[in-house]
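Morning. Coffee machine broken again, so started the prediction first thing and wrote up yesterday's gels while waiting. Chain of 127 residues, entered below exactly as on the submission form.
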Amino acid sequence: MVPTDGALMKDSETRKGESLSSRRLIRPSISEVADRTPLRVGVHRKQAPPEQTNAENYYFIKQMQNKTAMVVVLDDGAELRGWIEWYDKDCIKLNRTDGPNLLIYKHCIRFMFKEEELRQRRRRPRE
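Came back before lunch.
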């Protein structure tokens, strides 16, 4: 710390017990600090991850365009077969040849897969 305004004391005086109350703390003014620090123009904060990654959208669009035969397994274990005609945030529409078309809420779906994968698994011998 560097003393200012004639408050310079000799080492011998400070050793004798003189108080340091006559020393002033040097603090720059706010305007001086603002002049020294550059503005943070190019600094970007790390953004929170998006709520949706669009992977689900990509998957559904691909299956809809190809009219891929799908197996949808519901929470109660029921298997539904058909192809996805459209989807939205909460549900999918499953078209079926052996029954009526269905509107299925996504929260009721345990999982879904391509029907082709089921056929391949049955053909492959167990190891």
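Strands lie at 70-74, 79-87, 91-95, 102-105, 109-114. Going to sketch it on the whiteboard this afternoon.
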